[in-house]
Amino acid sequence: MAKKDLFGICPYVTSQKILSGKWSIYLLYLLQEGPVRFNELQRMMPEDITHTTLSRQLKNLEEEGLIIRREYSQIPPKVEYSLSEIGKKFESVIIALGEWGNDYLEFVKHKDEKKYKGGETA
Amino acid sequence: MAKKDLFGICPYVTSQKILSGKWSIYLLYLLQEGPVRFNELQRMMPEDITHTTLSRQLKNLEEEGLIIRREYSQIPPKVEYSLSEIGKKFESVIIALGEWGNDYLEFVKHKDEKKYKGGETA
DNA sequence: CCGGATCCTGGCTGATACTG
DNA sequence: CAGTATCAGCCAGGATCCGG
User: Fold this and answer.
1) CB neighbours of B6 closer than 8 A, spacing ≥ 6?
2) Contact, B82 vs B35, CB < 8 A?
3) Average pLDDT in the A10-39 region?
4) Exposure string over A10-36, b if 16+ CB within 10 A, otherwise e
5) Is the pTM of this model over 0.85?
């Protein structure tokens, strides 16, 4: 039970929890460049995502303090999402993640090439 | 449907998928310092985790190419896990993640302090 | 345009039991 | 010591419908 004490202490466990949302990373990435509206975000997503899901993800990130939701009282309504201070700090992670992701995609590509050339014909 | 084409192209989507495992980040973190045995890993985890779950997580990471499993034919058996090349490259992400995680924990702490001082007494 | 309420489903997780 | 097989439960994600 003593192990549970690490909750709220370990930065890695904390990070993991926040990144557990299926779209967290990508949303944080999209918001790097400035405020974006709800429907904009939905269109920018790499895969189709329902507004229900998007809404929930954004709400989570907002509750965790990473993003800020700003609502304009208009007809039609307009809502913009942007990064909070701590959200902006996440940029360094985004950058590292982007670079590594590209490296990994390269790695996978080479692995696949080997498969065609190599001994997978058993 | 055209959106689906981004699969296997976007580094962020790729990263997200790999980090989806509940313990991926922490495991990658633990292995930074060198090979570790199965039971060692289990003990080092911040929360209790069954060997079933740990086994599955490790297997996933191995299949994704991030870690290497080395088995020594002995009695009693000994298995060591270590980082692959692409796994080692993940270190920069780990570092960024660690720093941000600490920042975030600070941020949360301050937020909580405000709650006690501030207007939450209503 | 934005999003809540509800219901459903797949996948991950974890518990338990068994193997070399 | 280091797993695998199997089963059960939970919950994030998605579909659909409704509301401001």
Assistant:
1) A46, A47, B13
2) yes
3) 96
4) bbbbbbbebbebbbbbbbbbbbeeeeb
5) yes
Q: Which residues contact A57 (CB under 8 A, 6 or more apart)?
A: A21, A22, A23, A24, A27
CA of A101 to C1' of C2 (A): 33
Say whether residue A68 is in contact with chain B using an 8 A CB cutoff.
no
Q: Which domains are present in chain A? A: 11-89 (1.10.10.10)
Phi, then psi, of B37 in degrees rounded to 5: -80, 165
Interface membership of A10 toward B (CB under 8 Å): yes
Query: Would you say B12 and A26 are in contact if contact means Cβ atoms under 8 Å apart?
Result: yes
Give first-to-last CA distance, chain B, whole Å. Answer: 50
Tokens 């060692």 sit on residue: B40
Per-residue pLDDT of chain B (122 residues; tens, 9 = 90+): 445 455 568 999 999 999 999 999 999 999 999 999 999 999 999 999 999 999 999 999 999 999 999 999 888 899 999 999 999 999 999 999 999 999 999 999 887 777 666 544 43
B43 touches strand D (CB under 7 A): no
Using one digit for the tens of pLDDT, what is the confidence trace for A112-121? 777 666 544 4
Give A-chain residues touching B89 at CB under 8 angstroms: 100, 103
Q: How far apart are CA A59 and CA A67, in angstroms?
A: 9
The reply to whether B76 Cβ lies less than 7 angstroms from strand C is yes
Chain A positions touching B6 (Cβ under 8 A) are 46-47
Task: Give SS3 for B8.
Answer: coil
